[in-house]
Amino acid sequence: MEIPTQPLAANRSPYSKIWWGSFALALVGLSLTVLAGGMVWRAAWGVQVAGTVFTAVVGAGYVLWRSLTHRASLPRLGMDWPLLVGGLAVIGLWIVTPDPRQGMGRVSWLLAYMLMFYLFTDAFDVGLDRSAVVAALLTVSGVVVGLAALETFARYQVWWGQVGWGTQPPFPYRLVSILGHSNAYMAFANLCAPLAAVAFFTSPRRTVRVLTAAWLVMFALTLPFSSSRGGWLGFGAWAAALGLLWGWEKKAFRPLRLMAQRTPWLAGLGGAAGLAGLGAAAWLFYQQFASHPTHGSGVLGSRSTMWLNALKMWFSDVWTGVGPGQFGLAYLKTDASIPPNYWATHAHNLFIQAAAEMGLVGLVAVLGLGAAILRWLWRAYLHCGELERPWVRATAAAVAGWVVANLVDDFTHWPVVMIPMILMMGLAGASSREMRTRWGLPIATAFIPLTVLIVQLVYGLFGYAPLLRGLDAARQGSWQQAAEYMSQSAKRDPNFPFYSTQAGLAWAAVWGQERADVGPLIEARFFLDRSLDLNDSPSWLWADLAVVDWHIGIRSQAYEAIEQARKIAPLEPSYALIHGVFLERDEVPDLARRAYWEALDRARDWSGHPFWQQTALRREVIRDWLAANPDLPQPSGYWLEAVEAAEAGDWPTAHLRLLQSEWIGEDALAHWAGRARVAQLEGDEAAFVTAAEKVLTEMTRGNLRTGFFAQTYSNWLYFRRGLDIELVPGYARLNADVGQYTAVEALFDLYQNQGQCGEAIRVWMGLQASKQGFTLDEIPPMPACEGLP
């Protein structure tokens, strides 16, 4: 891939020391970008430290070297005023937002992208070898694409190894990749794919053509299994842009133009037929590979709901929006009820996201900047040299694909996508001599935003460090130590709600272990209350606070907190259930009955839970409710078909249905209950114990939706690791009866009959707590176990 270098290095050999140095620097930087910019390792301490050190050493070192050695000034990009206006708009809107700390990370990244554009362009202009950077981009992206292809192949290999060749899974596999999500994978791969295509068609070296051919084949193999709307749209956009630019260069469309002039009806008919054929092929492809349950139903899936909610945010403050970085928390109050509805942390559309977060001011700035980028790319394409034009064409096609993909996604949240794109734009800009001019502003000015960025990164690490130690302690069951560490994080970064939330949950867990001393509960209340003072949008934290207040004895405030939770998320059944428990314990039967009835209306499949048999009032409520609701939803799914097949003695079908249940990711509790029942019927004691233990784990998990909200809150909203729970001890919660109690009761009997009394006690406590809805009522005494002294 010999890209002609700039005049400063016109006589450089293709693989000189500078080439290898440029390649190594780009390879390390891009590898860190993949690790720190995706979702798998983004929150890892080592990755964050490495990214901060790399930014400080390389970024500050480069600016210092250019300032002292060359006394250089900043490059003129050709769209500096739109960048300046956009940057000032982001900063100004951030300053006036009610919660600047929440938006700090978002604002820092947006400004960092702008700074990178200047520094990358300057680096290419003075010696960073462009062909080496392209080679590094294709190397790193090739590893990502290759691992995605391997992941897909391995998943199907395991499937066919279990069921035999010829039996297809219920849905095509949807890959995850080492970036943590197929949407991000496709956005990243779509940026580099035009480079791979250009390298394949233009490189004189056979090795390069072979490697890029392998790159493109692996990319093509993974494309269908991404189930990514944005990825597919982006692919079509960059492929079309690359083909159109190539055809324009080669005058390949001249015969078509002549035919259109001579026989317009024939040209129109042919064009319509071609478009119809492409549309039909695209629809067939979509129907086949967009059927995975996580893809969502319909062409837009759940995006229409996200867009409507985002527009509501915008209309709440047309000029300035809800503030940069505020979308995820503002969405909680904009949607009708979260939970149980889906929680979107971004709008899945760049332009709607900009309007929601930054209002009309931000939307105009984004549209202006977008227009400036497209104009800038066109100028770079026109003014670059002939040998460099294919690479600028590839960059223009990649950016076109990125823009189109952002109609159904927002990749400004993904550094692993943004940084390579900015690097490619810097490469394209430096390829145009007419665009390589300088401002009078010294490059040392970049120290100001660079220092702010590094300070922000270090400050983030300073607050994050104790939390990570607390998570290690929590995994070992040392909740007291975990709570103390997490409290340190909350004190180091007092305006960050995430740390206060984690500390509050940890202190509540300390109290839940013994429930003798109310001190830990008071600490839990302090931190949960502070988190809600900073941002009062998460309704489940209000419910947590209500439960904590109740057990402290502050009943009036408990009622206020649960009412606030119900106001934010009126459709969540557990809030009505908690309210009913409070009212029943306060001996207000009429209001308790009304709250319980509402909980059952919100979650009809809760009607079979043992909770309703624990008191006379609940038995009365469930009796009347069942009489008024005779048509109840019946459980369904592959897990149930597996049980039915096992009861009929059809073991091959039973095992196939369990594998199908696992493939599509059916509810974990139902899946493991089905596995336990099948193993029990088959007489496989070891498999039964494994499955029944999984059932017990899922039954007692401290989550609303098997950890979904905890993961979203930690990983997707705050980009940090956190506790895998979101509920405090005593939080009333039920679930549908999918055979879990039969499985766990059988597990208890097995342990008791074998004399494993310690295990029997553990299972009994979890089983009875679940039957009571985790309301911390007194556990009935366990039947005698022969192994106890």
Itemize the secondary structure elements and their pairings.
Elements: H1 17-37, H2 45-70, E1 73-76, H3 80-96, H4 100-126, H5 130-163, H6 182-202, H7 206-222, H8 229-249, H9 254-262, H10 264-289, H11 303-316, H12 327-334, H13 350-383, H14 389-405, H15 415-430, E2 437-442, H16 447-475, H17 479-492, H18 497-514, H19 519-534, H20 539-552, H21 555-568, H22 573-585, H23 589-602, H24 616-628, H25 638-647, H26 651-664, H27 668-682, H28 685-699, H29 708-717, H30 740-753, H31 757-771
Antiparallel strand pairs: 1-2
- Overall helicity: 55-70%
**Radius of gyration (Å):** 30 Å
* Major sheet size, sense and barrel closure: 2 strands, antiparallel
Find the structural class using helix and strand composition: mainly alpha
Uncertain parts: 1-12
Q: How far is it from the N-terminal to the C-terminal residue, by CA?
A: 77 Å
The total count of helices amounts to 31
Net shape: globular
Can you list the strand order of the major beta sheet?
A: 1-2
Q: Approximately what portion of the residues adopt beta-strand conformation?
A: under 5%
Overall pLDDT, averaged?
89
How many β-strand runs?
2
